[in-house]
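In response to reviewer comment 3 from the previous cycle, which asked for concrete evidence that the modeling workflow produces usable outputs, we include below a single protein chain processed end to end. The sequence was submitted unchanged, and the resulting structure tokens are shown without manual editing.
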Amino acid sequence: MLAALILASAVPNAAPTRLPPVEQCADQGGFGDFRRALTTAISARDMGALLALMSDDVRVSFGGRYGKAEFANYWSQSPTERHKLWQQMDTIMRLGCATARDGRGVEYRAFPAMFVTSGSLDGFTTWVTLPNAVLRARPAPGARAVMRLPAWTVLEEVEWNGGGWVEAHTPKGGRGHVAVEQVRSIIDYRLVVGQRGGRWLITAFVAGD
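The workflow returned the following structure tokens.
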């Protein structure tokens, strides 16, 4: 029995094969009020209201950009950038919320949930299918459909050149190409929320790693 327990403890947890939206963010310490205010700001496309929900040192990019003024400048350079901001915000708010702790043990919450629930999966090579995704034999819209992929299936990237198609493996060993608009990277845009001075505030809105 002891040997079996030791063996079991030595086997790592299996990597998830699906990452559906989940809800792990309890309405504690005013988080519900924060979330409602955030939803209202996004629906209204209200940059001022959004900035009011951010920490003073909010992370804007991995290139050393921080702060509310930098955020406003970064996302107000053109109508295209403003549209992208609100489109991304709309999307991630529909993909669940998960709770985790950083390297110092401080709790944070993240939208979408898959940023947290993906665990140790490689952020640079892991994609998650959106509803109605199709795996095709070649990277072309009219190519033979290998299979219809269940929503939220984890795919392992074989190759992606930054274009419109990702070549990938399915959890069961299938291989093919899926249109990039039918999948989401687990390190795509995410909104990170933490407590500062007793308030829930946005501490980062970034993509990449």
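The radius of gyration is 19 Å. We consider this sufficient to address the reviewer's concern, and the full set will be provided in the supplementary archive.
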